[in-house]
Amino acid sequence: MPIDLGADPARELAREELARAIYSDAAPDPLSAALQWLARRIEDLLRAASGISPGGGWGLLVIVVLVVVVVVLVRRRFGPLARTTAVPGGVLGATDRTAAEHRRLAAEHAAAGRYDDAVRERMRAIVRSLEERTLLEPRRGRTAGDAAREGGRALPAAAGALQDAARRFDETVYGGRPADADTVELMRAADDAVAATRAVGVA
């Protein structure tokens, strides 16, 4: 006995039937295909890792958590890794300013709250002042540590202040540790100590 579905129900059934995957010849768009492939690769990787890690999937989860904790602790202690691995460069760079000019710039940066820039300029003032006093020979590429060691031999009484200034400079410029008002004050005090200390010899 024939079944009369009517035009609308028949059209709906045809649409549902044609929507089935076996009738679809259209390939997925490239982005969807790439995402599906990536998801399958990640799933395979996690499955393989969970198979060889102690404790299976839970063991893998514990390992991932431990790695994340270690990375966070290292970043908090030493700052961004990309910056801590940088090789310290010269303090003065291409500048030919005098120590007084560097001090003026340091004071301007500090007054404006640009503490990192103030630390840079104050260390440059210290190095330039040592050169102007002929305690250091002018040399491009001299690092803060170099200046502290060489200047400390000529000014033993200020050696500790020089080492502290060099360490804070490296922490700020290369270690990713932002400077603050206390850091700027320490740098200023080191500069004052170097200026007030009499030399015992030429480095």
What attributes characterize this protein structure?
203 residues; mainly alpha; 2 domains; 9 helices; 0% strand; elongated; disordered N terminus
Over all CA atoms, what is the radius of gyration? 33 Å
Strand residues, percent? under 5%
- General form: elongated
Q: Structural class given helices, strands, pairing?
A: mainly alpha
Supply the number of helical segments.
Answer: 9
Determine the N-to-C terminus distance: 113 Å
Structure description:
By secondary structure, this protein is mostly helical. The chain folds into two domains: 27-78, no CATH class; 99-196. It has nine helices and no strands. It has helices at residues 7-18, 30-52, 56-78, 81-84, 99-111, 115-132, 144-154, 159-173, 181-196. It is elongated and about 95 Å long. The model is unreliable at 1-6, 21-25 and 80-87 (pLDDT under 50). This is DUF4129 domain-containing protein. InterPro entries: TgpA-like_C. Keywords: Membrane, Transmembrane, Transmembrane helix. Residues 122-192 form the Protein-glutamine gamma-glutamyltransferase-like C-terminal domain.
